[in-house]
Amino acid sequence: MRPALARHDALSREAVEAHGGSVVKTTGDGIHAVFSDPLDALHATVQLLLSLNDPQVTHGVALHVRSGMHVGADERRDNDYYGPIVNRAARIMNAAHGGQILLSHAVVALISERLPEGVALRNLGAVWLRGLTSPELVYQVLHPKLRQDFPALRSLESTPNNLPQQVTTFIGREHELAEVKKLLADTRLLTLLGVGGLGKTRLSLQVATEVLDDYPDGVWFVELAPLVDARLVPQSVATALGVKEEAGHPVVEALVKHVKDRQLLIILDNCEHLMSACAELAKQLLQSGPQLKILTSSREPLHLLGETTFALPALAVPDASEPVTLAALAQYEAVRLFAERATAVQSAFRLTEQNAPTIIAICRRLDGIPLAIELAAARVRALSVETIADRLSDRFCLLTQGERTALPRQQTLRALIDWSYDLLANKERAVFCRLGVFAGSFTLEAAEDIAACDIVHRDEVLDLLTLLVDKSLVVREPQGARYRLLDTVLQYARERLGESAQEVSARAAHLEHYLDLAEKARPELLGPNQAEWLARLDADRENLLSMHLWCDSAANGAESGLRLVRAVRLYWIHRGLLGLGHRVTLEALSRKGAQQRNLARCRGLFDAGQLCNFMGRYAEALGYLKESLAIARELGDKARVAAALQPLGWVSFGQGDLSTARIYLEEALELARALGNQRDVAAAMTLLGQLYRVEGAVDKAQPLLEQVLAIARELQDRESIAIGLLNLAMLRIGRGAEDQAPSMLVEAIEIAEETGSRPAAQSVMEVCAGLAVFRGEASRAAQFYGAAENQTAKTGSRRDPADEAFLRPLIAQAQAALGPAAFAAAENSGRTMSHDVAIANAREWLKVKV
Q1: Of 451-455, 544-548, 845-849, which range is least confident?
Q2: Alpha helix locations (H) across 96-170?
Q3: Residue 841, Cβ neighbours under 10 Å: how many?
Q4: For residues 264 and 288, what is the distance between their CA atoms, to the nearest angstrom?
Q5: How many degrees, rounded to 5, is the angle at CA 597 between CA 593 and CA 603?
Q6: Would you place residue 406 in the very low, low, confident or very high pLDDT band (cuts 50, 70, 90)?
């Protein structure tokens, strides 16, 4: 067989190329080819079948090739072809028997007047083909040297079934379709799981049409959603299969007899409200019919022995952080679905460069849920996509009026989730509603703290959360440690929570949990576990912001808000989220009740001043820091006095007042030493050492900066170690002793990558630029400088005055060496690099220099 197939492939390619076609790809033992003229396709196919007629050519193995042809405008992506034209051609080919050539009516219309000599056509009539929304008028090619008589076409009518003909195209789901077919081949009971509207029914029907040939006794679809009485489940299955109840005997007995010796597939659709009845019937039928298979769709598993489950994901949407070109959007199923359904209701609708970002935003806000996207696309008939996007904040009012023939719960998004909610027990409802306070994902511990209430004990939350996962209302993330609600389900849960008497207590529990988390994180952001805790705060950033907003309404909200901004100040800095941190801090300071001149306000003002410092907003920082210092002196709190003096020195430095800066910093260092606080000592020494370096007092700066690095290593503070290395590297480069700078910068890069620190990574690029100038690599320096400037634009972090004093003359030197145009080009190449690529380039360059 192997040499025969090799010969088949060679002859196929030869026939295609001999008639001006191109082979798109091979699919197992099949060939997908394209031609400019369908007549060329016919010539190539006839040539192939005639050549395969000779047994000597195929090593004595008879190869009966089936062929299908269709014609239309192509849809290309990455040298491949997609869309309904390709799908219809494949379906026509699937309907053929070995040795048979089938053409669509569209092909015949273009070649009927140009048929080759001896070739004729036979009209086989209109045929319903699998997966297509309309019948196809099919013709068979007749040739005197090829077989002409075949059995009936392999259409939907040729296998017993009751599958409803679909009126819309099946979009995407290629991976899921293949995976479900594979699972179904290896199990006898397969359940498709997912929240309402994900397309479980549509996928079930598509799978059914594609596996028809595997079940000679039929594929039978049983819609259970309209049923209210669980006792009617067996009768509904019997009706679908055409099984009649015997007098005096339950219908289950008749079903058991019917499936006993038959090879068939039964699809039980929408089982969630009839779980016990469906599970019991499936168990009896599977035990009786060894060749029977059952495919079910539900919000939760049947929990039968031998059951395989497949959780259906949402449709793919572009990632919010990645720009996507119009050409690449075709790979995102959610966007394709919106565009096709919108075109169906508004023929002039087109996906364009202008509306693509809005459509992506719509699909993302609707979680890639097919029903929600279809309901939104239906609104294109009367609304612009921009208006649809604006109104999605009240999506349950906007997303109504689905297909009139659909079940009522499938005509609106709210009714669909109502259906799931109404099936919950009281305790499940209580937990589900209280989960509505979360923003983004959450941990089990958070759920236990927040979902517990007057009717749900904390110890019960795990089991109830598991039930909600089983019912597809809560999603467990792939890593398994966190949970979340789809945004659409989350909005519903919040509305239900707001209607209950539980919202205030749930919000209070949410505030307490995340304030505790933030305050536990604060000291960890300064030690060896910094990377781990930064990642934990990354995962809960949205919850922290939600908690911040709730402080406006909460009892003691002013105090809690100021505690929060103090706890997460370092997080904003390390993650380069200075603008966000600045806004949150000022909102906390302006909240009613936050104006008392106490320790909390003193700390909040310090936080605001330091964030302004990093952003280069020195005048604004000065006001916050002077008030913080005044309150600290009023309270007699020397530690807060020492803390405020350090950024005040930096503000003065930034404003060019070096003498005042020195006064502030020397007092800060003296106080820190008196208090014995090593961190504050190191911070004050860092700033003072930087000041000395700028003044040219390198001999005074170096010992201070070396002591800072030693203290940072002793404290195992990774971020401070990186800062110490960078400061010493600048000092050594500035004094012409740059031999150790590359190894220092490599270590700083390793720390920045370990912790994800954007400020450290940005500083590495700046120091690399200075080092490159010093070593005569002006173009490389410009590139590093551009990469640093790119990060500055993203984070809002401005170079501090000491770093600016180091870098500015070196960059001016590189500009003079290259000339304005060449420098700008090299700088721009750095600006367009991604952060990861820029860091990787710096690391490789430095390792050569070590």
Answers
A1: 845-849
A2: 105-111
A3: 18
A4: 13
A5: 90
A6: very low
